[in-house]
Automatic annotation (TrEMBL), chain A:
Belongs to the FAD-binding oxidoreductase/transferase type 4 family. Its cofactor is FAD. Its EC number is 1.1.99.39. It holds the Pfam family FAD_binding_4. Coiled coil: none annotated. Keywords: FAD, Flavoprotein, Oxidoreductase. This is D-2-hydroxyglutarate dehydrogenase. It is an enzyme of class 1 (oxidoreductase).
Automatic annotation (TrEMBL), chain B:
Residues 23-213 form the Electron transfer flavoprotein alpha/beta-subunit N-terminal domain. GO terms for cellular component: mitochondrial matrix; mitochondrion. Heterodimer of an alpha and a beta subunit. One of its GO terms (biological process) is fatty acid beta-oxidation using acyl-CoA dehydrogenase. This is Electron transfer flavoprotein subunit beta. It comes from Theobroma cacao (Cacao).
């Protein structure tokens, strides 16, 4: 009895850690609804630092209403449409029930809400193709949807678009144990793929907080980043092929399983990260690396940002082949985590430090990896780059260190209102933005910086007791302009969706956006696929 | 006073255990190994007693294959003063471990011997009791609180028993086995990992200690618990009633 109790306690505490890791990993945003609309559609009025051409564009934008208008060229659903879909998919997969529609109309942060009257659940590529062919002929707008865990309002309707959810297409088609190539349908939940591969001795090349709900089709369509990016690279490298259905119902079979294939334009890349605006991804083939048994994690303290940077450079040089993640958080983030999350303990309790860095290694030989990591850490400590640190001795400690980094978004949510920005910036300048914002905001709000140091991806978060226009005016467009000035990206990994569709010019030139618009027109002439998202609203195909 | 702590290297408890295809045991190749969590708690308690000025030295002992030294290094990085590794090529049953510990106690003369109440791999929960029996020392098992009185040479131990706590007072020297709620073990900091590198680990073989390694037990087989079958979604109450009546035979 006693034994049972004790071991189940151990398991429970581990499980709760894991669960928390699941539920808190991604960097969710939480504005109230009213605020989100204002921030999303508040055009950049005084955007002075862009060139003349952009300014023209923006003047054009500012004439657009502050709220997005439904595109009048889209039809509305009628009873013939419903009977067509019922004939095609069967009663069960044509959903008009209001409760079920409520869930798929709302994003998981409850920040965006559409008013779709119809959810379709196709079970095969053929059915997706038929749906789109029909919608295209009727000019019915469509929102492709997978796990609906996006952070920028890309996976929910804006108005009455038909929701095509690929969740029922969840079969693993094949797995090649020699090459590690997995072929599966778009609706496979990431975590299911992870555990399927685990049994085969392989891992998914991506891992993110939402893995329990997000689906691979959505991951590919949004080019999801996550924790393993520094090691395995982005999905542009790991997705070997995919099958997508175009707006007119044509099926593009690009489901190759070859690592090398230089025959013409590599069109699959258009569907990776285009957020469902060019086609619906129905199948993917992914290159998966073998699972390595040795995982080590150090939780370190640095006295300033320049030490963090030097540590990054050194880690890449000295841990190169085993380095799997290098993440950072500042003291403000640490204070929030310790204050707002239950059961989190400061690994370095003797004093507070300005910066905390997590370095994870994954390799095949535990004693070798450990020795290497220890030697690196000790020399960095002697060199003054690290002021203090701890090294996880078991998986439980490893999870609890990760919990601190991954718990930052959750702690921010608990702290009150939060303005969130997901930016790619040159590593050496990344933290200057946090300092600048602190000066700008003074006592108005707390500015928190954390993120993927190894990828140059800063999560800039501004935490205040409540949402306040005075604060927002200090942040936007300053943050976007700052990012533009340093040739960064206003969306490192979350995508543009609805939230940032009109902000694309901060990171892409008008010429580039024009080409994107031409591609959109070519593949989706009626613009029925995921309208109002990704591309600026001034561009109507 | 000297405190001796036994630490065991086990499959990390967060690892999903796999049974070997021939059912002879669990897979340990390429699997993350860590210090048994109960041993970590035992070590932490010893370190706290030492830090309170009630003990002079903490000695960590591990037995088994050569890589038990990793576990001893972890102990030293947490703060143990030195390590003892009794190298054995095969798995040791609790009675053998207790016999070896007895020999080491005779060499080291500790005033207190602290062990985890059980190892999470074999779940035996026997070693502490056996060594207390072999030594003729009093034992406080499943300790959730330990208070040492140096002057009176006694230790008060709160034990977690089903339905409550039992408080015992033991004369030193004594054996204590630790439960989960006794303390929260510390992390190994980099400066301590550095210091640990120069701390000594002494090696013994069972022969040197005059202990014969034999086993009266034979593991017949190790099997996985039955897998839970996937559930089914039924479309109507009638179908449910039918299943309950004709398949499950419960109504």
């Amino acid at each position: 009895m006693e034994k049972l109790r004790a071991t189940s306690n151990l398991r429970r505490s581990l499980k709760s850690l894991l669960n928390r890791r699941l539920s808190s990993g991604s960097d969710f945003t939480h504005f109230n609804q009213k605020r989100s609309f204002q921030t999303s559609f508040n055009w950049i009025r005084d955007y002075k630092s862009v060139g003349e051409v952009n300014a023209v564009q923006y003047r054009y934008f500012s004439s657009v209403s502050t709220l997005v208008q439904r595109n009048p060229s889209f039809s509305t659903l009628n009873s013939d449409d419903i009977s067509y879909f019922k004939g095609l998919l069967g009663e069960k997969n044509v959903i008009q029930d209001e409760d079920r529609l409520e869930t798929v109309n709302t994003d998981w942060m409850h920040k965006y809400k559409g008013s779709s009257k119809l959810l379709l659940q196709p079970r095969s590529t053929e059915e997706v193709s038929q749906i789109l062919r029909y919608c295209n002929s009727r000019c019915l707008a469509v929102v492709p949807q997978a796990g609906n865990t996006g952070l920028v309002g890309g996976s929910v309707p804006v108005f009455d678009e038909v929701i095509v959810n690929v969740g029922s297409m969840n079969n693993i088609i094949s797995f090649d144990k020699v090459s590690g190539i997995l072929v599966c349908e778009a609706g496979c939940i990431l975590e299911n793929l992870i555990s399927f591969l685990d049994n085969q001795g392989f891992v998914m090349p991506l891992d993110l907080g939402a893995k329990g709900s997000c689906q691979i089709g959505g991951n590919v369509s949004t080019n999801a980043g996550g924790l393993r990016l520094v090691r395995y690279g982005s999905l542009h490298g790991n997705v070997l092929g995919l099958e997508a259905v175009l707006a007119n119902g044509d099926v593009l079979d690009m489901l190759g399983t070859l690592r090398k294939d230089n025959t013409g334009y590599d069109l699959k890349h258009l569907f990776i990260g285009s957020e469902g605006s060019l086609g619906i991804v129905t199948k993917v083939s992914i290159l998966t690396p073998p699972k390595l048994s040795s995982v080590n994690l150090a939780f370190l303290a640095c006295k300033d940002y320049s030490s963090c940077q030097k540590l990054l450079v050194e880690a890449k040089r000295k841990l190169g082949e085993i380095l799997s993640a290098i993440e950072f958080l500042d003291d403000q983030a640490m204070v929030l985590v310790l204050h707002h999350l239950d059961g989190v303990r400061n690994p370095l309790p003797t004093s507070m430090h300005n910066f905390y860095v997590l370095i994870e290694t994954i390799g095949s030989d535990d004693s070798f990896d450990r020795e290497k990591l220890e030697a690196f850490l000790l020399s960095s400590m002697e060199g003054g780059l690290i002021s203090d640190g701890v090294l996880a001795q078991d998986i439980n400690q490893l999870s609890s260190f990760w919990r601190i980094r991954e718990g930052v978004p959750e702690a921010l949510m608990k702290a009150g209102a939060v303005y969130k920005y997901d930016l790619s910036l040159p590593v050496e300048k990344m933290y200057n933005l946090v300092n600048d914002m602190r000066v700008r905001l003074g006592n108005l709000a707390k500015v928190v910086g954390y993120g993927h140091l190894g990828d140059g991806n800063l999560h800039l978060n501004i935490s205040a007791p409540q949402y306040d226009d005075a604060i927002l005016e200090q942040i936007e467009p300053y943050v976007y302009e700052w990012t533009y000035k340093h040739r960064g990206s206003i969306s490192a990994e979350h995508g543009l969706g609805l939230m940032k569709a009109n902000k694309i010019y901060y990171s892409k030139t008008p010429e580039t956006v024009q080409i994107m618009a031409s591609i959109k027109t070519l593949l989706d002439p009626n613009g029925i696929l995921n309208p109002y998202k990704v591309l600026p609203h001034s561009i109507n195909p | 006073m000297k405190i001796m702590v036994a630490v065991k290297r086990v499959v990390d408890y967060a690892v999903k255990i796999r049974v070997k295809p021939d059912k002879s045991g669990v897979e340990t190749q390429n699997v993350k190994m860590s210090m048994n969590p109960f041993c970590e708690i035992a070590l932490e308690e010893a370190l706290r007693i030492k830090e309170a000025g009630l003990a002079k030295e903490v000695v960590a002992v591990s037995m088994g294959l050569a890589n038990c030294v990793d576990t001893l290094r972890t102990s030293l990085a947490m703060g143990a003063d030195r390590g003892i590794h009794v190298e054995a090529a095969r798995e040791l049953i609790p009675l053998t471990v207790a016999k070896i510990l007895k020999k080491l106690v005779e060499v080291e003369n500790p005033g207190l011997l602290i062990l985890g109440k059980q190892a999470i791999d074999d779940d035996c929960n026997q070693t502490g009791q056996m060594i207390a029996g072999l030594l003729g020392w009093p034992q406080g098992t499943f300790a959730s609180k330990v208070v040492l009185d140096k002057e009176k040479q006694v230790v008060t131990v709160d034990r977690e028993v089903d339905g409550g706590l039992e408080t015992l007072c033991l004369d030193l020297p004594a054996v204590i086995t630790t439960d989960l709620r006794l303390n929260q073990p510390r992390y190994a900091t980099l400066p301590n990992i550095m210091k640990a590198k120069s701390k000594p680990i002494k090696k013994y073989t069972p022969e040197e200690l005059n202990v014969e390694i034999k086993s009266d037990l034979e593991v017949v087989q190790v099997t996985e618990p039955p897998k839970r079958k996937a559930g089914v979604i039924l479309s109507s109450v009638d179908e449910l009633i039918d299943k309950l009546r004709n398949e499950a035979h419960v109504i």
